Amino acid sequence: MKKFGIVLSLALVTILLAGSALAQGDKSVYFTTFYANANIAGAPDSTLRIVNDGGSGGTLWASFYVFDDSQELQECCSCAVSADGLLSESVNNELLANPLTGKVNHVGVINVISSSTKGPTSNTPAPGLKGNFSYDIAANTTTAAGSRAVNQYLFLEHPLADSNLTPSQQSNLQNLCSYAITLGSGAGVCSCTPEDHDF
């Protein structure tokens, strides 16, 4: 009976591992980060920087999908990054300036797909893009009277998180973007900063 339990446990582990292997996607082409303090008066703007490592020998496109904190897609677009080039996107001025819902967004998530083809609605994932995110967070300071005031910001920077791009996630992002472009009548499409123009 004990032997049967061990065999059954091993069989279940094998099935679970096989199932999780099927759900694995490509982590070299899909990146995520968050944004906070966007579009807040007095708060510094955040910057998403993407570089093309040049390994592909040509231009790649960064397909951006910008969500609010309710998981609703607000904007999407695809920006070119030439080999060994730098793309710097302002969160306030490029990635959140034209939201689909017209809502002013402060907090949310940004997904990026590295693609060999232009277009956030039909990209072809290809490795070669890497990125980091620069942002500021409010620092609480205490006045002489002991009351708290937020009047300073701390600068932070982190690499974009390598994420698991499954075919279903890619399809979902492309479909959401397609709906946003169709329904938005011009809204819901982010813009691209000229390459090598940094903030």
Short overview:
This protein is 22% helix and 38% strand. The protein is built from 3 helices and 10 strands, in the order H-E-E-E-E-E-H-E-E-E-E-H-E.
What report would you give on this structure?
- The chain is α+β, with helices and mostly antiparallel strands and 199 residues long.
- The protein has one domain (28-188): TM1070-like (Hypothetical Protein Tm1070, Chain: A), CATH 2.60.290.11.
- It is built from 3 helices and 10 strands; from the N terminus they run αβββββαββββαβ.
- Strands 4-3-6-1-9 form a 5-stranded antiparallel beta sheet, with helices on one face. It has a 4-stranded antiparallel beta sheet with strand order 5-2-7-8.
- The termini are far apart.
- 29% of the residues are buried.
- Residues 1-22 have low confidence and may be disordered.
Shape: globular
CATH topology: Hypothetical Protein Tm1070, Chain: A
Gyration radius over CA: 21 Å
Q: So, the CATH homologous superfamily?
A: TM1070-like
Fraction of residues in helix? 10-25%
Tell me the series of helices and strands, N- to C-terminal.
HEEEEEHEEEEHE
Number of DSSP helical runs: 3
Proper CATH architecture: Sandwich
What is the tally of beta strands? Answer: 10
Integer average pLDDT: 84
Strand order of the largest sheet: 4-3-6-1-9
Please give the CATH class.
Answer: Mainly Beta
Low-confidence stretches: 1-22
Question: Main beta sheet: strand number and arrangement?
Answer: 5 strands, antiparallel
Strand-pairing-aware structural class: alpha+beta
- The number of distinct structural domains comes to 1
